[in-house]
Amino acid sequence: QGQRRRLVVGNWKMNGTREDNTRLLQGILGGWTALESVDVAICPAFVHIPQVAESLKGSQLHWGGQSTNPHEAGAYTGEVSAAMLADLGCRYVIIGHNERRRLRGETDDYVAEQFLAVQRAGLVPILCVGETIEQRESGQALATIGAQLDVVRNAAGLEAFEHAVVAYEPIWAVGTGKTATPDEAEQVHAYIREQFGELGRQLTILYGGSVKSHNAAELFQLQDIDGALLGGASLEANEFLAICRHAE
Ligand code: PEP
């Protein structure tokens, strides 16, 4: 894996009260042991970012948003801009998560606009790509992922990926308890890396989809897997900590 640092990102999705968050953050910070080669971030709901920021400031952990509106500012009721996330000290913004593609109709073009907006704000986009079970079973997994990456790369340029993270999340593995086998995951990660030529060697590529403490070590051993994007496992302090340590 050369000089690539590891990265573990917790996506809390639409979960938690401030009280729940306090407990979870105390559990994480209470059990934290310094990690040398791993960056760790938590992405709570927008309304909880100030609470998480306050709790994590001065720690080794970073925080981020789960999405963003691509516009700088203006008449976009209910939306949050990347500049607002930057103002709250975020480092990362997840974009193109399959739940938003599916539930909010976010297209590849829209995701490309978000990617640009996140970088304009000085933050690091975590671009999620992945195939459905039908696409996998019909042999279209790699072509699907290649097309999702192409749209963003054509809009932003190859060099933009020097300051970006890609997360491979097979849709059939997110929140389902099913994980891609190490072979399946490694094949896709190697393919993603190839799409970026020379630059691919330094690109951080995360795996996401039912990663837990019991399967993380096996995934992190693979040559092209640089860390994980976690849903369910990020809501339990001990699970989250164990996965972060496996990444070290
Ligand atoms: C996710 O939502 O990004 C995710 C990977 O979820 P889970 O870990 O729960 O499958």
Describe the structure.
- The protein is an alpha/beta fold and 248 residues long.
- It has a single domain, classed as Alpha-Beta Barrel (TIM Barrel), CATH 3.20.20.70.
- It is built from 10 helices and 8 strands.
- Helix 1 crosses helix 10 (237-247) and helix 5 crosses helix 7 (141-156).
- Bound molecules: phosphoenolpyruvate.
Characteristic terms for this protein:
248 residues, alpha/beta, TIM Barrel, 10 helices, 8 strands, 16% strand, binds phosphoenolpyruvate, Aldolase_TIM, triose-phosphate isomerase activity, TrioseP_Isoase_bac/euk, Triosephosphate isomerase
Instruction: Write down the secondary-structure element order.
Output: EHEHEHEHHEHHEHEHEH
Major sheet: order of its strands? 1-2-3-4-5-6-7-8
Number of domains: 1
Number of DSSP strand runs: 8
Layout of helices and strands, plus pairs?
Layout: E1 6-11, H1 18-31, E2 38-43, H2 49-56, E3 62-65, H3 82-87, E4 92-95, H4 98-103, H5 108-120, E5 124-129, H6 133-137, H7 141-156, E6 165-168, H8 182-194, E7 204-208, H9 213-220, E8 227-230, H10 237-247
Parallel strand pairs: 1-2, 1-8, 2-3, 3-4, 4-5, 5-6, 6-7, 7-8
The structure holds phosphoenolpyruvate.
Phosphoenolpyruvate binds at residues 11, 169, 174-175, 208-211, 229-233.
Concise summary:
With 248 residues, the protein is an alpha/beta fold. Helices cover 40% and strands 16% of the residues. Helix 1 packs across helix 10.
